[in-house]
Amino acid sequence: MRPLCVATFRPVLAVFGVLALAAAPASAQEVPASPPQEANGAASSAAGSTSNSAPEIRFQSDRVTYASDAETVTATGNVVLRRADQTVRADVVTWNRKSGLIEASGNIRFVDEGGNVLYTDKVELTDELKAGAIEDMLLVLRQGGRLAARSGTRAANGDMVLRDAAFSGCSVEGEDGCAKRPSWEVTAVAVTYDAKDQRVHYKGALLRVFGLPILPLPGLAHTSDFRAESGLLIPDFRFSAANGAEINDTYYWRLANNKDLAVTGYVFTGALPMVSARYRQLTDHGAFQATAYLTRSARIDIGGSNVAGANPQEQVFRGYFESNGRLQLSENWSLTGYGRYASDRTFLRRYDISRDDRLRSTINLERIDANSYFSLAGWAVQTLRSGDRQGLVPIALPAIEYRRRIAPPSIGGTLELQLNSLALTRTGGQDTQRAFAKAQWDLRTLTGWGQEITFTALARGDVYHSSQNELTTNALYRGVPGWQGRGIATAAVDIKWPLIGSAFGGTQVFTPRVQLVAIPHIRNLAILNEDSRSVELEDSNLFSLNRFPGYDRIEDGVRVTYGADWQFTRPGWRVSTTVGQSYRLSTQKTLLPDGTGLSSRASDIVGRTDLRFRDIVQFTHRFRLDKDNLKLRRNEFDATIGNHRTYAEVGYLRLNRDIPATFEDLRDREEVRFSARVAFARRWSVFGSAVANLTNRVDDPTKTKDGFQMLRHRLGFAYADDCLDLALTWRRDYITNGDATRGSTIQFNIAFKGLGVR
Question: Is Cell cycle among the key words of this record (predicted)?
């Protein structure tokens, strides 16, 4: 049998459509009765149809001979039969007028109206051009798959049986045009096609990978008209320190054309079984899906909620729920939502579902047009961090935002109006309500010398209400209980002057920039601080009107910010860098703590550099230098060298702010990340990655290690070609968090491209 490769089970069915070249009766070529004769040269004829509705059949060949005694017509040399969009090409075609049997042989190429191509050396056809018997066939499907069989037959009712068949999604030829064995294939003793039910059934199906028998597939069947259908998918295998050996498999239900359900069962040697389900549906206005996990196992509480005398090994029900969706209600209105909830803080990590330490749920009704935006939202967060109190995590409902952009006809520029309201509720902490209205006018203009000048004027009025403020541990965040109000006014001018010239065979752009911002004194400490706690000077907020990340804190006073951008480009190269600093003209004391880079009148120096060399080298460096001694307070870089097959990536972060430990949102840290992949033997690769914590006890007194703590690493190898992906991975975690124990996890993944399963 010819080497075979094919892409997906469902397209196989097209094979049978290819063979049924005609669905309605049609006559063969009429040749006048006469003594045996031979016609040399090209011959082309058209056959009339016995039915006016049947398509006309035409053929052409280099030579046609007719034997009157045997009543046979033989066409030889580049024979082509055409019927509508279908064609048959062969070396020789013989038609017996008595029996109506047509035999084609030699380099047969059979193309159906769908573009599927059948290759064989011999095929029997009826005088209605319906295939009867076929030998040594290879079908190349338009979708990219291949089906091969030693022989096949087609009954009068359209049912077909293929013997010694094989199916794969792989190419059977290499780049050099030589034959190659497919990476995977499904072989079967027999393949049966039921024309009435439009289904394909396999007998003795066996999955082979690299020629080795891997998995029997008893009862394998699929539709022939590309309909998705219910059935089992290919299982996954894994071994982990927390759960032992694991095998899971999924049963897929095709409920309708717009919805489906997948149920997965998990069996572990070190834990009780688990089940999960995923439901998806597409509607006229959008789509949504929901996923749930459920099991029963012992857990170790890390949230401080265990009561005295409780048994930490007691078996309890545990699980996780996640959903998301979007509805487009009209051209402008939409509703988006997603929800996540875990039964406890270690479930996701133990079962290797997610490494997130916070689960956020939200719903958002939005209206968007060319000049306005409206949002009515609510959100809640579940903390999975060890020791965090869930009662201190707020629930936001409602969160309202409205913006409108207006072009003032008399003064020019752009005027943006904003209304905002937020209510935060905690079960064990401070409650907050906030509302403000803001108007901001921006005017951008260009001078005759090429300077770009932007004028900004801003006015905002705030109203706050808070209660149970004493439950907030940091006094700087509490504010004054009850109702509070404040007014904010801002004036700013921003000047850029791009200077363009040639250098080093390329083009450079040097842009000095200066900004002046004036904000009168603000009643900051009387207002609580919910959204402006993690503040730090960096290149992204250097020229912001307010360097605080939220609305609750305003950087008041008069300041000037100065810096420059430089960019150089030439074929294959691109380098850009930004550096800047700000100076506060006001002498009043700032509320910004030491270590943020903004506590003194002169700020620290911040910058960023990006370097790109084609697609081979990518490098980004961000820094913050102490204004007094130029010591690095922030040193961060990410570098990638290589291409998509062989590469190395390294990332490093060092935060040395010397900030008080009371500001938990700005804790110092040092970390290094590394990953690499090396390709070899064309299809194979080895890969690895590691993450290590380099923070010492001086920077973070809560750390148990001093200077080096491996967090996790991963090693593995992989194979990838046009139809198969497989990988074997070993991962080791060095941190134990409750019942998510430290240890090794070994996982084997295999994906058959075109099948849509792993």
Answer: no
